[in-house]
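Repro case for the chain-ordering regression, as requested:
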Amino acid sequence: MTEISSLGEFKLIEQLTKQVELKNPSSVKGVGDDAAVVDFNGKQVLLTTDLLLEGIHFDLMYVPLKHLGYKAAVINFSDIYAMNGKPTQLLVSIGVSSRFSVEQIEEIYSGIYLACEKYGVDLVGGDTSASMTGLTLSLTCIGEADKDKIVYRSGARPNDLICVSGNLGAAYMGLQLLERENTIYKTQKDPDFQPDFAGKEYILERQLKPEARKDIIELFAKKGLQPTSMMDISDGLSSELMHICKESGVGCRIYEDKIPIDYQTALMAEEFNMNLVTAALNGGEDYELLFTLPLEWHDKIKELENIREIGYITALDMGAALVTRDGQEITLKAQGWTAFEK
Amino acid sequence: MTEISSLGEFKLIEQLTKQVELKNPSSVKGVGDDAAVVDFNGKQVLLTTDLLLEGIHFDLMYVPLKHLGYKAAVINFSDIYAMNGKPTQLLVSIGVSSRFSVEQIEEIYSGIYLACEKYGVDLVGGDTSASMTGLTLSLTCIGEADKDKIVYRSGARPNDLICVSGNLGAAYMGLQLLERENTIYKTQKDPDFQPDFAGKEYILERQLKPEARKDIIELFAKKGLQPTSMMDISDGLSSELMHICKESGVGCRIYEDKIPIDYQTALMAEEFNMNLVTAALNGGEDYELLFTLPLEWHDKIKELENIREIGYITALDMGAALVTRDGQEITLKAQGWTAFEK
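-- result from build under test --
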């Protein structure tokens, strides 16, 4: 018998879905991108789904229920934006054990509704179930896009510019902080313990209440900018870049000194004595957009707010590497999400 | 704090979704039917999702993994057929703890693929996750239908005929049998114990490997038959009929002696000393179709294979009742699914 941890998430998915042959003419793109693409009368419909399990994806000790609902919705919207689409409908399934009250479930939904309101999405269905154990959330988001606007992971070409929105590593450092304070709280067993979050609001918000980059997608439309490839950064820059390289059949170089990092993220990494670039490369859950642009956009990128050029696409045989401040090349590794590892 | 069990599933969903106002022009129908309806360029897209949790919806002691995958897919297809649509795509999310092997997950998927193959559906995406506890399956099915062919729960009118496909109570009696043999197995602690399933294959198959009524939907198309309302029977005839009555603002009468019941179901009920009609009314998971037809179809229904007329729709003030063999009227109750109850 093969242990799941010996394969990891991506190889497991590959093994489970390698036999799939799409047969319906409406099925345009199946497994392997941020969202599936289905064509209905020429309108391309985007579909994405996320499963969130208590103890794996969230710890109710430090995640407020409303934030949990908000985040669960937003990370689905983010997958639709990552295809250059617009999220329009949401299905929400929830499994709850009897230790939850109706009021607590309503808290989760209030977060979901807040996200729907902000992003213009309709909640249209779902499923509600009892659970033997913890809290389970499964969300499916439907989005739409014009056929010629959809951006896949597979379109990056040598010499394309690699760009990211916002900054990286913040959500990961926020998680480290929450886990540290949670450990202190448990160890002290002092009911009056107050965690020390002053000056760290930004990284906490990045972890607890992330936003999807709707603004960047709107900017693309406004500027007539069509990325050649794109995905959202949920597992970490390094892992996502390797997905784009693999799907596009290319290599890449990114520069350590160009990776955008917020001041609070840097301070927190110092406090934890952690390597800042490692946090930015491998810390997940930032939900920023990673995308590639044709070379001719090089001069214009500087004028675009919240977008940073961090490197370029190469031929496949160059491999994928990070160029450090002192000019060394370090091969990128997909550490990313490791929930299957022990 | 309000306990979830004090509300039950349907009231909980009502409470959680009462504030929803659909805002996107593409959102045609939200919560409250077998599937949501979204319009893309005039093509109506159907969306349904199901969450299946170990210990609540299935017991791996007696549900083979391949059957579990098959059933999980089929019950989603059934929801699309219940709207008079055709399932086309499927998203599968799975959460597994480390006690599962890759081979076991492949077993589940082999069942899902078998169902996809049989019903002509493409698996196009999903999510895979570790789990702290048991097995979690969340499936979302996408289907399509012509706008004027979609059948909602809300279209039943007084004097319409109430019909069901196939027969009822079989899946429930199959479950009773499985649970009895499982209890004996656990009590005896005899590793060589072989359950006694001879002559009971039909009710076991109805429970473990149910089918969706694709054939009935195809018959509707062939005969030019358009139901006024429809849903699939997952929670039990009584509960589903009350949904149709509520959504359509009508009452109903169904006849005890007209409810179709298979011979094996009847034998099993006798063996268990259970009321057969109660099993047929309240036993769930048959995934037969319950639908209403205009009165003029009365004479033609007899010619349709696998369809039985069991009663008629009345004005709202008549209420919903079962007419027993001796002419008594018994008010219908929605016992249905009680997983939230203790």
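Ordering looks correct now. The longest strand of chain B covers residues 43-53.
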